[in-house]
């Protein structure tokens, strides 16, 4: 949690000190961080849902997960392989962002 707070402070400080006549390129890093975090979070949540279903064997849970994943993939315009690759890339990128603030 401490790392995330430090990372957010660093990125928000770049917004505060941005030049008034600058273009949107100054916010590109922040936007990439937000998109990466959102996608990685979605992938993590789906993984947790699958783990929960695997351990509880809730009636109708498998069908729900399948429909949910199919809907999300369609909404994002991805096939299952593209979705899996995007999850792997976003989690890797998120981990890299997270490690920028690691205490070494």
Task: Walk me through the structure.
The structure is a single chain. By secondary structure, the chain is mostly helical. It has one domain (2-19, 26-99). It contains four helices and no strands. The chain has helices at residues 2-16, 28-56, 61-76, 80-99.
List the helices and strands and how they pair.
Layout lengths: L1 H15 L11 H29 L4 H16 L3 H20 L5
Keywords: Signal
Protein name: Unassigned protein
Organism: Escherichia coli O104:H4 (strain 2011C-3493)
How do you describe this structure in short?
Helices cover 77% and strands 0% of the residues. By secondary structure, the chain is mainly alpha-helical.
What is the gyration radius calculated from CA atoms?
18 Å
Mean pLDDT: 82
Termini gap: 16 Å
Residue fraction in strands: under 5%
Task: Please mark out the parts with pLDDT under 50 across 5 or more consecutive residues, or reply none.
Answer: 5-20
Strands, count: 0
* Relative helix content: over 70%
Quaternary class = single chain
Number of domains: 1
Structural class: mainly alpha
Number of helices: 4
Shape: globular
Following the backbone from N to C, one meets helices and strands in this order, namely HHHH
């Amino acid at each position: 949690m401490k790392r995330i707070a430090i990372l957010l402070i660093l990125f928000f400080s770049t917004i505060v000190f941005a030049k008034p006549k600058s273009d949107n390129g100054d916010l590109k890093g922040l936007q990439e961080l937000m998109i990466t975090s959102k996608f990685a979070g979605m992938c993590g949540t789906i993984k947790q849902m699958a783990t929960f279903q695997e351990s509880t064997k809730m009636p109708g849970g498998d069908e729900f997960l399948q429909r949910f994943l199919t809907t999300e993939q369609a909404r994002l315009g991805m096939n299952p392989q593209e979705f899996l690759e995007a999850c792997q890339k976003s989690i890797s990128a998120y981990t890299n962002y997270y490690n920028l603030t690691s205490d070494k």
